[in-house]
Q: What sequence folds into this?
């Protein structure tokens, strides 16, 4: 369990106790619990750790881990030994979900299923940055002629797909919109540092892809839905967010917030979950002179950016395709 916008951990409760208090057992800080099973009386958990999926005992002993998304799993202990038979369901960008089985301790991995022989469309690179950021770059195989440096022959038009949540991730899976939470240590940064951290991370990853000749700096598009839609809007009003010689040429923000103060009590998040999302900086908890929320609101950036655009005679705000559900109860249509 965990907060709506925070990491999920494993907690215990004594059913015979009159107290309803929970005791933290494991997970939820640097990783995020995503499922539990109990074979032979031993609890085993599946977690998301950055871009890696892991299967671990509750004592922290990792039984299996890899960067592809583990969508389902099961396990059984081998008699009285410590060996565990694992079955995992895994997909990546070129393959639908397949079943794999292995024995912990170095056993061979066997694939009994073969559903995806026709899926060979994309190449995947994991971008390795010097700071603690993770990203994957997907390239259609028709454009993936590779140099000796393992990059495309020429930089490619690039869509930057921002993850949402803010505590979620996009992984190397057949459905690249599949998210899993990433832990409260990660999420504490964007919740308390919107625009200070998450926007800078988008810029850093994009700049890295440009420097490594993956992405064409003149053909960049940013897109996303919900939290990612909000960040896509922020990327569209880049008033001093970076000093690099590029900008996004288009954006597709979907169902994103443009002014969090004006959303107060208009969302189904109500007075319980909206403070959780905004680090308790909501209208009824703030001094009337407190304008910190404006820093993370795209709507407040437009005036200065448009004035700068007029003075310099250049386009700063790119063409935007704004998508929003007419009856969206989480982020009302007025936010579009």
A:
């Amino acid at each position: 369990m965990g907060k709506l916008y925070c990491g999920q951990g494993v907690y215990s409760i004594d059913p015979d106790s009159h107290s309803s208090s929970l005791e933290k057992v494991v997970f939820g800080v640097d990783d995020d619990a995503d499922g539990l099973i109990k074979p032979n009386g031993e609890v085993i958990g599946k977690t998301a750790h950055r871009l890696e999926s892991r299967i671990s005992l509750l004592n922290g002993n990792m039984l299996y881990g890899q960067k592809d998304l583990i969508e389902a799993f099961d396990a059984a202990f081998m008699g009285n030994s410590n060996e565990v038979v694992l079955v995992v369901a895994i997909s990546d960008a070129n393959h639908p979900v397949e079943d794999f089985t292995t024995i912990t301790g170095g056993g061979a991995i066997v694939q009994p299923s073969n559903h995806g022989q026709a899926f060979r469309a994309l190449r995947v690179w994991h971008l390795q940055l010097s700071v603690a950021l993770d990203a994957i770059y997907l390239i259609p195989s028709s454009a993936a002629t590779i140099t000796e440096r393992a990059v495309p022959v020429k930089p490619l038009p690039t869509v930057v797909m921002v993850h949402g949540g803010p505590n979620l991730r996009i992984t190397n899976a057949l459905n690249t919109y599949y998210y899993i939470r990433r832990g409260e240590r990660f999420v504490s940064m964007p919740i308390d540092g919107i625009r200070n951290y998450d926007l800078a991370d988008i810029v850093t990853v994009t700049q890295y892809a440009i420097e490594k000749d993956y992405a064409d700096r003149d053909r960049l598009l940013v897109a996303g839905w919900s939290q990612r839609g909000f960040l896509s809007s922020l990327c569209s009003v880049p008033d001093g967010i970076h000093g690099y010689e590029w900008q996004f040429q288009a954006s597709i923000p979907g169902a994103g917030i443009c002014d969090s103060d004006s959303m107060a009590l208009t969302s189904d998040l109500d007075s319980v979950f909206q403070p959780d999302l905004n680090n308790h900086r909501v209208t009824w908890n703030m001094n009337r002179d407190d304008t910190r929320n404006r820093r993370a609101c795209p709507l407040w950036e437009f005036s200065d950016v448009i004035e700068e655009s007029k003075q310099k005679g250049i386009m700063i705000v790119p063409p935007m395709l704004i998508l929003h559900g007419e009856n969206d109860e989480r982020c009302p249509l007025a936010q579009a």
